[in-house]
Amino acid sequence: MMQTIAAFHFIRPWWLLLLLPALFLWWRERREADTTARWRAVMDGPLLAALSVGGAQKRRIGPEDLLLTAWIIGVVAVAGPTWRLLPSPFAPSARPAMFVLKVTPSMLERDLPPSRLDRAREKMSDLLSARQGAPTGLIAYAGSAHLVLPPTPDTAVLNSMATALSPDIMPRQGDALADALALAQRTLADAGQGGSIVVFADTAPTIAARPSGNAPVVLFATLPPLRAQADASLLAATQALGARLVAPTIDGADVAALAARLATAGAPPPVPGEAPRWMEAGWWLTPLLALLVLLWFRRGWVLA
Fold this sequence. Notes:
This protein is α/β, with parallel strands linked by helices. The chain has helices at residues 2-7, 19-33, 45-51, 63-79, 116-131, 155-163, 177-191, 225-228, 232-241, 253-264, 286-294; strands at residues 9-10, 81-82, 97-102, 136-141, 145-152, 196-201, 217-221, 244-246. The model has no long low-confidence stretch (mean pLDDT 84).
């Protein structure tokens, strides 16, 4: 939600200047339509109200108010509100991803056979196969975060790197998930191709704020399915990061759903030398504008 708000802007913002004459004409019309305005300077207010037909009643919404509303909606629509990028027809269809793997002694537990760490490696390998050579990078973290491999289409290298990871080779014990996410966001930002982040972890520390970056985050729980959906630390981290929690399944349903999500999540990769194209959303306002125009067919409305 916050990413949508941050990306919201107008494609043609100069059209918004037409709101100024709209407000001026509305004010002028309201002033001229008030037939008692000229008498207020020379007549006492209570007396003027008593001598005026309907003077004590507040004026209802008139044609000029409806015209102002329609004008504002029309100007906003023409200005081109947008918050979503259009994929380029010349851009590569595969979007990058960063795998963030927790490598701690707790990942050696065997409640998710053969172990939590081995099951994470298996799911990573299946996900790489499902992504069909899409650029994928790897970050390992425990008490500190380390870039193992930047995004690459070489799945064999990434699998071999992941297999070599173990808690014994990590320089510091702990749970530096926030540092790992920040490193993943920087890596994707430096590549300039968009992408997503997938975290493979069994628990998560308390995260005060989401690391800066636009890449969406998916938290793949390396726990038995029932525990994964009820783990308090993972649920809290999911909420703090604005992420999506995925529980492992016996079959490949979890990998298939995650691969489909990674194929469309985040901003589409830009094409070198091509300016970003934004999806115009002003046409969504046309039904509302048409509904307001229908009131013009009401008998006597223009002369109200």
